[in-house]
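Dear Dr. H.,

I hope your travels went smoothly. While you were away I took the liberty of generating a structure for the chain from your last submission, since the lab meeting agenda had it listed for discussion. I wanted you to have the full record in hand beforehand rather than looking at slides cold. The sequence, exactly as received, is reproduced here:
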Amino acid sequence: MGVKVKLTTRGHYSVKALLDLSLQPDYGPASVNTIAERQALPAPYLEKLLIEMRQAGLVRSLRGSKGGYQLARSPVHISLGQILEAVGETIEPWAETPTSNQPAADWVTLTLWKRLHQKLQESLYNISLEDLYFDARSWQATQGAETSLWSRMALNLGRFKPSLGFNWG
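The corresponding predicted structure, in token form, is as follows:
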């Protein structure tokens, strides 16, 4: 038996979009339509999410024919928690608080869920885009199959090394 946490569509699309941007050559910009096509996402919905993430400082937008969106900082400095927060996602364990006249078992359950929620929140803010990339590569390697996305990711593997001197300012 396990506890399942499922990302909403907003959260899932947002993570996919930023992971896609982290794979851009030299972290250059990509248009909404390009990202939407590569990730099989609806472009109008994706654009709304990217605007929210721009307002949160996770991506920046560039105008012009070669413009689009790009990461505002290194993938190692963007957490899953930040992405979800930027698009208004929350993971709440329990909507109501037991009152003083409820049985002790309710308080035990509430305390348990509060502690689990705290640990989950900490975990979300400790998982970076870089971590997601490496986790995906590890999973893909255990499957023994290459896909075009993972092949492209493999070509960009070295870009996560801080010694390459990318400017995130």
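Two observations you may find useful: The beta strands are 59-62, 68-71. DSSP finds seven helices and two strands in the chain.

With kind regards,
E. W.
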